[in-house]
Amino acid sequence: MLRLILDKFWDEGVWLPPNTTWEDIAPGPDKAVEYTNYTHVFIPIPLAVVFMVIRNFLEKHWYAPFGKSLGIKDTRPRKAPNNPKLEEAYRQCPKPKQFSTIAKKLDLTERQVERWWRLRRSQEKPSTLTKFCENTWKFTFYLINFTFGIFVLWDKEWLWDIDQCYIGYPHQGVTSDVWWYYMISSAFYWSLTISQFWDVKRKDFWQMFVHHIATIALLSFSWVCNLHRIGTLMLLVHDCADIFVESVKAAKYAGYQRLCDTLFLVLIVVWISTRVGIYPFYIIWSTSIRAPMLLPMFPAYYIFNSLLCLLLCLHILWTWLILLIAYNTLKAGQMEGDIRSSSSELSDSPHNSNHSSPTRVKSKKVT
């Protein structure tokens, strides 16, 4: 029964172009090119654990000391007084619509319950140093991976002529540098998907979760179907903008407002150029218009293209939020809030930051 299900799932008519079998693209010494091995899609999972270990080491021994040297404090909100009954009520409903019912049950005033609730919620928020370390880790990876991607793809013909992603498909070999680029990138997104549940909780938690899952699915599908060429271009476009997303956040948490504003302007240019320019009008246009002209379509390709379009929808949403922050920046005089979040946590706001800008406070007094 299981064998029947697996055979049905891995049907060649679904995953491969017409007149192509799994044997045709299976790696082997007698083949003219080195094909991708579908079993390698599982390699990034244990590699993701290695990434999390490296991240923990760097955050503890490098990023945290560096952040403290910049004056970032590892202070946390005051803890709520120990109250087992309120704690039990909090675990049952962290965000109650009204506190009067809870106050009556526990024989407390509504004001006492509200004050305790506010302290209890704030104590779970990470410190500014924790957020700085997280963003610095991501910035480090995206910068290194983007540089590595440029190095890997510079001499590849499909970087300069995207039609080469389809000409000769599926008989396109994978080189060792492209293999490492794919495995490292996939492992990083696996690590983000796993660690997201205990990382800093942001307003766009589920959007980011969908983004990571869609990216992993794209990389896995493209690897199994030997569509790795278009996959490498997608990675390169994404990493370029993410460098500035994370650097803006890190500069904000470090209190370097001028650097933050400058990087934010660069981010807007790079983000719009890559995420809503190159990505839809070059890559998705190629996969949707040029690909059907150069190779016969098959069901898995439509799944692959649908995932590309799903990422585009997220890009459009985040572009709107970034432009909204840019609009508020022009009004306020400095970058507020958190990139790709409709509204930031209290700890992300300049009114509650350990490093609020003096010019911002002064302008508020004048108002």
Automatic annotation (TrEMBL):
Xref: SUPFAM superfamilies: Homeodomain-like
PANTHER family: LD18904P, LONGEVITY ASSURANCE FACTOR 1 LAG1
Domain of life: Eukaryota
UniProt domain Homeobox: residue ranges: 94-127
Compositionally biased residues, Low complexity: 341-358
Full protein name: Ceramide synthase 6
Keywords: DNA-binding, Endoplasmic reticulum, Homeobox, Lipid metabolism, Membrane, Nucleus, Transferase, Transmembrane, Transmembrane helix
DNA-binding region: 96-128
